[in-house]
Amino acid sequence: MKRKGISRTVAIVIALVIIIVAIGAGVGYYYSSKTPTSVTTITQTSTLPISTTPITIGAVSASHPDMAAWAFMEKNISSIIKEYDPNINFEDFPAGSSAVIHAVESGSVQIGIAGTDVIVVAISKGAPLVIVATFRVTPAIRDVVVKSTSNITNLNQLNGTISANSAPGSLDTIAAEYFAITHHLQFKYSYVGSFSAQIAAVVSGAATFTNIASFDAPRLTENGTLRVIYNFTYPWPMFSIFTTRSFLEQHPDAVKAAVMALLKGNQIYEQNQNNITVNFLINYYKNIMKPSYTYNVLFKEVKFSTTGAINATAIQVLINTYRELGIITNTTITANDIYTNEFVPVIT
Question: What tens digit of pLDDT does each residue of 215-235 get?
Answer without folding.
Answer: 876 778 888 889 999 999 999
